[in-house]
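To whoever is on call:

I kicked off a structure prediction for a single chain this morning and the downstream step that reads the tokens threw a length-mismatch warning. I double-checked the sequence; it's 79 residues and nothing unusual in it as far as I can see. Pasting both halves so you can look.
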Amino acid sequence: MKEILDIRMRIDEIDEEIVALLKERIELCRKIGELKRLLGMEIVDRKREKIVFERAGEFKDVFAVIVEKCKEVQKLEHV
């Protein structure tokens, strides 16, 4: 039982790291959105999305959600 608790504690630590990285990623996406607005660029970049999804491999579905969230943030900044 202690081993399970130890493993779960480590999972919790990893989850905290993932959340922190996601927050950082969202902030960077927000900055990209600002730059795209200033440069008159479109929010959606299909080439970039394709690269991200290819790199994600078996986690493509997870990254699809992340990319959508980033686009939402950029669109809010684009208004």
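Update from on-call: the warning came from a stale cache, not from the record. Cleared it. Sanity check on the structure: Helices lie at 2-39, 46-56, 60-78.
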